Amino acid sequence: MQTPPVTKYRPFPPxxxxxxxxxxxxxxxxxxxxxxxxxxGNQALAQPMSVEEKLEYFDLLVKIGFKEIEVGFPSASxxxxxxxxxxxxxxxxxxxxxxxxxxxxxxxxxxxxxxALRGAKNAIFHLYNSTSPSQRKxxxxxxxxxIKAIAVQGTKWVKHHSAPLVAxxxxxxxxxxxxxxxxxxxxxxxxxxxxxTDVWQPTTDNKIILNLPATVEYATPNVHADxxxxxxxxxxxxxxxxxxxxxxxxxxxxxxxxxxxMLAGADRVEGTLFGNGERTGNLDIVTVALNLYTHGIHPGLxxxxxxxIREVYERCTRLEVPPRQPYAGELVFTAFxxxxxxxxxxxxxxxxxxxxxDVLYIPIDPADIGRSYKAIIRINxxxxxxxVAYVLEHEFGFSLPKLMHKEIGKIINDVADAxxxxxxxxxxxxxxxxxxxxxxxxxxxxxxxxxxxDSSVKCEAALTIDGAAHKLTGTGNGPIxxxxxxxxxxxxxKFEVLSYSEHSLGKGxxxxxxxxxxxxxxxxxxxxxxxxxxxxxxxxxxxxxSALNRVLGRK
Length: 555
What we know:
- By secondary structure, the chain is an alpha/beta fold.
- Helices cover 40% and strands 20% of the residues.
- It is built from 18 helices and 14 strands.
- The strands form 3 sheets. An 8-stranded parallel beta barrel has the order 1-2-3-4-5-6-7-8, surrounded by 7 helices. A 3-stranded antiparallel sheet has the order 9-10-11, with helices on one face. A 3-stranded antiparallel sheet has the order 12-13-14.
- The two termini are 53 Å apart.
- The relative contact order is 0.07.
């Protein structure tokens, strides 16, 4: 970081809004919600969802109550196109639910997207182009007039090519996004939106959706609210316009920016479950919706079984809901402080069903979202899987994969039961090390190196197995795959790698890498191994050896 004064960065310019109204307003109703999990969220995944996973996720979004769901970018790939077609042809879209598709301002992409929507009862065509000064200068080398012309022409193409769909009975609505709106000059963003609206000619019965994205979050939430109020007060056809939000979370204030922008007049909110999205993510719709609920405003979305929603989300996206994620995190209703525990217990004891909720430190009744009260009374329990994971992470730096929590929790519980007293954090750490990191029987890794050739990796490994030396070679698409193939030539149990994760342990020159690998044996048993090394490649190989030693230790 620069020493003061900081000259590398500039403060975001304020909005000239002399009579702003949003600070004096109170939210009284929920917005129109649009899920972008299947498009904006999906494109941010290291392993995008399969068609079957997207179908399951779509059904989940419908069950929650979303009436507008962005299902993809059908002109971008055949998979995206086919998914849209399956939804329509297999009648998977309930009446009253609109599917939304995203498209750039190019005619061939627009016609392809229209083709994907053929037969849909209720559709939203989402057109966008970049408008900010930096995009104009560095990417498109275009003037303001050039950018506006792109948006206008794209809208004309959508209107023309969607006419047959409308004639065939599709309710077609139009959404336009000046991408990077929040870093675009407000007068120019308004100019483009007005020009697009001139072409589309919305009515009070079929309003245009003007989506104003914070594609990258640059400003504080109050500035974002000013930008939205400025647009709302300057649009000439506000009564025929739905102003939509699409915030990101680069500054960690996506929720706040959305809530203030709703006060500023926005009608609609786009986001994802638990905030999945590129970089730091999209807006977390779950948080905003349940924030409204805790103020007595029903969000129109059903999160009464948030554990099931989280399970589908984690399985389909291969992401984990952090333990401290608002409302859904494993530890959000758990207090580790004795004074908090005392206050919770005392206020809980006098809480009456017919009175407003007022339990200290617990802003929402866990039962309303399907959470168990056990999480509240399990406070300070280091032998629970959440408590064990918390101690290992916050005291020793081990951020275990979520699926590993149950495994280590049972191990610690067994040790605690045998001892007859609660384990200290040091004892928890020692058990973890002995179980995962310091096992040296029956397999010891003596040497490992890899060489790359073309698109494959070859490994050479030296192991001691039951005291006997073995030299192995294997080839695969990476070090782990090559090592697994090398082990396949031994008498060791056959297995497959189910998951892999890693993080740094410590900082600076003393930092090491820790890897966690989950394996499944040919007999169907699954368990984890862990490895630590200054070299991330060796850490992952040690994790495989750890897992195998644990498999053989079970025998």
